[in-house]
């Protein structure tokens, strides 16, 4: 069943709150943080195997773990992702302007060159 991203986040938060209500929860953010690392390692393992059919499941597990980490840190994951999206849009627009000002053509520049511009913009903030 397909859900809107905001609905999916709400469901994940609800599932985790219900589990916590019956004691199935870590005492602090260290547990979910370790789970994020574990899920990332599992994703790495599956991508190395080349078994693409498992990647979606592993990314889902990773996202679920990140939502749980946000809950333990008392951060709204939707608000955090909205802020990250806004920051990326702003930085990417700045990257395009900076590249144009320096005569760098997007689509032809190397990832390394663009990454250098990105890092420069981050340092300015």
Structure explained in plain terms:
There is one protein chain. It is built from 5 helices and no strands. With 125 residues, the protein is an all-alpha fold. The chain has 2 domains: 1-75, Helix Hairpins, CATH 1.10.287.1080; 77-125. Helix 2 runs antiparallel to helix 3 (55-72) and helix 4 (77-101) packs across helix 5. The longest helix has 25 residues, at 77-101. The protein starts with a helix and ends with a helix.
Distance between the termini: 41 Å
Order of helices and strands: HHHHH
What would you call the shape? extended
- Proportion of beta-strand residues: under 5%
CATH superfamily of the largest domain: MazG-like
Under the CATH scheme, the architecture of the largest domain is Orthogonal Bundle
Q: Tell me the CATH topology of the largest domain.
A: Helix Hairpins
Over the alpha carbons, how many angstroms does the gyration radius reach?
19 Å
Number of helices: 5
Number of strands: 0
Helix content: over 70%
Q: What's the mean pLDDT score?
A: 95
Low-confidence stretches: none
- What structural class results from the helix and strand content? mainly alpha
CATH domain class of the largest domain: Mainly Alpha
Features of the shown structure:
Helix Hairpins; extended; 2 domains; 75% helix; 125 residues; mainly alpha
Summed up:
With 125 residues, this protein is mainly α. The protein is 75% helix and 0% strand. Helix 1 crosses helix 3 and helix 4 crosses helix 5.
Topology record:
Blueprint: H1 5-21, H2 30-49, H3 55-72, H4 77-101, H5 111-124
Helix pairs in contact: 1-3, 2-3, 4-5
């Amino acid at each position: 069943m397909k859900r809107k991203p905001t609905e999916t986040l709400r469901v994940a938060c609800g599932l985790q709150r219900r589990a916590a209500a019956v004691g199935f929860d870590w005492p602090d953010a260290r547990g979910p943080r370790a789970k994020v690392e574990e899920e990332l390692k599992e994703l790495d393992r599956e991508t190395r195997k080349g078994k693409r059919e498992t990647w979606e499941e592993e990314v889902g597990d990773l996202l679920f773990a990140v939502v749980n980490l946000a809950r333990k840190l008392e951060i709204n994951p939707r608000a955090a992702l909205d802020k990250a999206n806004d920051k990326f849009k702003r930085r990417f627009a700045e990257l395009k302007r900076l590249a144009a000002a320096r005569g760098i053509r997007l689509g032809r520049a190397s990832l390394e060159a663009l990454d250098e511009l990105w890092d420069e913009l981050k340092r300015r903030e």
